[in-house]
Amino acid sequence: MRDNIDEIPSGGIGIKIIGKIADELSYTRTSDGRNCLFIVKYYQQPGLVRSQHRSQDGFFKRAIDVLNSFNFRFQKQRNRPPEPSYNQQVQKFILQVNTDIKAVAQVLSWVEQLDPLPIPLAVLHQCKLAVIEGFTNAVRHAHKNLPLETLIELEIMVFNEHLEVKIWDWGEPFDLQAKLKEELHQKNLY
User: Fold this and answer.
1) Whether residue 169 is found in the same domain as residue 114
2) Backbone torsions φ then ψ of 76, nearest 5 degrees
3) Would 2 be classed as within a structural domain?
């Protein structure tokens, strides 16, 4: 059995932390009957131009879109591959672990594969925290009554300007948005 599971603090702290870290956050049921916690964290690497969807609007966005389109057509005409996208996938990491709180050390070791990548340090620490919180939430809540052998799958996709974290569990789904609103409401009461 999972002896130490009751020693993990509860009370929605993990969802609060993940909610504060994530730039985009969702929790959905997948077609194979699992749930997927999806966390996106944006950042900008030193020396890269900020992506269009984050900073430009109106006239400037349209002007850059036209220039990018022209640049792509020009490069294609000269039989050159287009410049790499600022939002290009750099690396992908996948891990499957049992529903065991002791596996948190294995999860943390797995996340440390990100350390040598050119990710801002603050984002790297936030990603590690979000992954650990997401994993412990899956163990503590989603898999609370499931066998230890039930797998939790984790995936991190690193792009030039953002990270995407996915954590799949086999538990009963819950309404993430309602939970976040409940947490916000409780915060406003105090």
Assistant:
1) yes
2) -65, -40
3) no
